[in-house]
Amino acid sequence: MINDTIADMLTRIRNANMSKHQIAQVPSTKITKNILKVLKKEGFIYEFEEVQEKLRNHLIISLKYKGRNKKPIITELKRISKPGLRVYVNHKELPKVLGGIGIAVISTSKGVMTDRYARNLGLGGEVLCYIW
């Protein structure tokens, strides 16, 4: 049993990127689906789809690369709020990742969104991860 599904998902994406795989497979949960929706909307991945097997559902993620050398679009994924240490911020303290180049994925009362969108709505929440 995996305690931290978000960290597991980020690690699987990171490992697939390093070995230049086209797809990555992660266990399906509500929070991982919502994070992947944000990644797709921001252009870090092509697509993801849910596949049902006998006992469990999985998400198949199509990773994005650029150029002939297949340089990954996602340079780094960093988990911020962990089960042992949750990190909450209000709308004034929302982080800017690499001066706005990257995104921070925030879990708010209105759903999972980027730091830019949360800042526009004036919402704070739990900082899940940084992606650039």
From TrEMBL:
Quick check: keyword Transmembrane in the entry? no
Q: Which InterPro entries match?
A: Ribosomal_uS8 (IPR000630), Ribosomal_uS8_CS (IPR047863), Ribosomal_uS8_sf (IPR035987)
Predominantly, its location class is: plastid
Q: Does the keyword rRNA-binding apply?
A: yes
The GO terms this record gives for MF are:
rRNA binding; structural constituent of ribosome
Location of the protein in the cell: Plastid, Chloroplast
Q: Name one GO cellular component term.
A: ribonucleoprotein complex
Q: Which UniProt keywords apply?
A: Chloroplast, Plastid, Ribonucleoprotein, Ribosomal protein, RNA-binding, rRNA-binding
Could you give a single Gene Ontology term from the biological process aspect? translation
Tell me which family the UniProt entry assigns to this protein: Belongs to the universal ribosomal protein uS8 family.
Outline the subunit composition: Part of the 30S ribosomal subunit.
User: Could you tell me what this protein does?
Assistant: One of the primary rRNA binding proteins, it binds directly to 16S rRNA central domain where it helps coordinate assembly of the platform of the 30S subunit.
What NCBIfam families has UniProt attached to this entry? Answer: PRK00136.1
From the Swiss-Prot or TrEMBL record, give the protein name: Small ribosomal subunit protein uS8c
Which species is the source of this protein? Answer: Caloglossa intermedia
What gene is it encoded by? Answer: rps8
